[in-house]
Specification:
Layout lengths: L2 E4 L4 H11 L6 H17 L1 H12 L7 E2 L1 H10 L2 H19 L6 E4 L5 E4 L6 E5 L8 H14 L3 E6 L9 H10 L3 E4 L2 H10 L9 E3 L4 H10 L4 E2 L7 E6 L5 H12 L6 E6 L2 H15 L4 H9 L4 E5 L4 H5 L7 E5 L3 H5 L6 E2 L6 H8 L2
Helix pairs in contact: 2-3, 2-8, 2-9, 3-8, 4-7, 5-6, 5-7, 6-7, 8-9, 10-11
Amino acid sequence: MIQVAKADGVCERRLIEQLKQRSGEIDRSVTAAVTEILDQVRLYGDTAVREYTMKFDGSVPENAEVPKEALDAALEACDQKFVYALYRAADNIRDFHARQKQQSWLEPGADGVILGQRIRALHRVGIYVPGGTAAYPSSVLMNAIPAKIAGVKEIIMVTPPQKDGNPNPDILAAAKIAGVDRVFLMGGAQAVAALAYGTETVPKVDKIVGPGNIYVATAKKLLYGTVDIDMIAGPSEILIVADETANPKFLAADLMSQAEHDKLASAVLVTDSEPLAQAVAELFPRDAGSGYGELLTNARQAQAAQRALEGVRRAREALELGVTPDALLTDVEEALSALGELTGANIREDITARIFERFCVGK
């Protein structure tokens, strides 16, 4: 069960201090380790990638590149309800991002000067898809589909092998649906380095996108300039402001959607309803399911990752606590009037969990 803390003027301030202590700066030891990995891959290519894969994953796939037939087979072997969900999510993601596509334009002036902007897609993009702590097929869809829409000529995906050395079939199915061109079984900083520098097997890319652990994030940070990147993500965090009208199942799902990412993730619920806080706390382990037992244990190592605050009377008071998360959700009866003027907030009524917005709606 997650911890429920009543706001008494002391407890919530202690929580804030714990959140502040979770520095966004990358640990020096991690930087040193990643720097060495990058240097080794740059110098020794596939040999270094295989050595680090054995060191960190415990096994090396017989073939680094996954054959296209394996993607077709995965699509057939996966639960067809899951495959249907992937197709539906892919359609929604495609529809959303097609509306964002930029167009080239030319505008001749009266004095003969021609103004314009030419939009050209990158030739080759690399996608990192986590597969160690947990597998995220949604990351495949949300990174590959916008690239296809933009006109990227070739999409290269890297993902860690499972403990048995084989690829995760759910990730392969998503790769097939999203139109990924080539898939390599490798993860961690060594996979990022392979994409950035190129090896005998892995082609050099123009840009690397996708989430990962602190080693992946550090590698992307250090390689920026050698290769373009999307952003340095993590640790994940979410703040939900809710009242007694909220659905506890939705809240538990949203909290877990961030807390599962890694042990540094921060998932916080602020509510003026103690019964709601207790209901969410009771649902959390059940919603996690048998496959998330270890994730739940790891998340508990972060003191702020699974706390629900109770006792804040108004939604605005929650914001005055000074917590600025990646995702701010409001699940109060008058959400739009209470927080509608805030930039960056994800405003919604008691409709559905944010995980459906992210994985199905296409945003």
